[in-house]
Amino acid sequence: MEQNFTESLNLCEFELLAGSEPQEMTSPNFPNNYDANLECAWSVTAPGYNKVINIAFTTLNTEAEYDYIEIFDNGNVTQRYSGDVRSPVSYQSTPGAIVTVTFNSDNSVERPGFRALYSSELGECQSPNSCRAPPTYYDIINNDVPYSPGCTFREMYNKRWICSSLFFN
After folding, report:
1. Residue-by-residue pLDDT tens, the chain, 169 positions
2. Which of 6, 34, 36, 94, by CA, is between 20 and 30 Å from 156?
3. Which residues, in sequence order, are CB contacts of 116 under 8 Å at separation 6+?
4. Can you tell me whether residue 141 is helix, strand or coil?
5. Same structural domain for residues 30 and 94?
6. Residue 140, φ and ψ in degrees, nearest 5
7. The domain that contains 41 carries what CATH number?
8. Do 55 and 69 sit in the same domain of this protein?
9. In sequence order, what are the beta bridge partners of 16?
């Protein structure tokens, strides 16, 4: 006789806004043990243009192989962690990314989970106009190419604008 059963999942979703000061993100019930059958997601965004999101796990203790954390950068899995990780784990997103941290637990062993600090800072491009999307043909012929003090578009290569910074003393 075949038995069918459905495990009840505990779902949780969080939307976080990263600023320049580190803020805390934890698994449910931390520092106590998390619940079984968790499926949680933290969506982390940063205000402004071209920010990178930094995430530093200060504690990471899950059931190895079965309970895990994944980090998504613009929808792509970039990291996966499971078990008792003793050394600090840190991650920096690509500029302008939305980072999603997911946490999944199975139906058996529970542990404390994780504690992480998240923040944001300006990415590689140092001004809002320095590395925008390439201008259109209309922008070029109408001389409406974006300009930012200290940065100028130098050349067009493979239909992409290459931006180089100019520094003045």
Report:
1. 444 434 567 899 999 999 999 999 999 999 999 999 999 999 999 987 778 999 999 999 999 999 999 999 988 999 999 999 888 899 999 888 899 999 999 999 999 999 999 999 987 654 444 444 444 444 444 444 443 333 333 333 333 333 333 333 3
2. 94
3. 24, 25, 26, 55, 56, 57, 58, 101
4. helix
5. yes
6. -70, -50
7. 2.60.120.290
8. yes
9. 44
DSSP state of 134: P
- Max Cα separation, the chain? 82
Helix (H, G, I), strand (E, B) or coil at 138: helix
Query: CA 78 to CA 102: how far, in whole Å?
Result: 12
Does residue 86 share a domain with residue 38? yes
What's the CA gap between 87 and 58, in Å, rounded? 8
In a domain, 3, yes or no: no
Inter-residue contact 114 to 40 (CB < 8 Å)? no
Is residue 5 domain-resident?
no
Q: Are residues 94 and 41 in the same domain?
A: yes
Residue 4 lies in a domain: no
Does one domain contain both 57 and 98? yes
Task: Answer for the pair 130, 47: CB distance below 8 angstroms, yes or no.
Answer: no
Q: Are residues 92 and 21 in the same domain?
A: yes
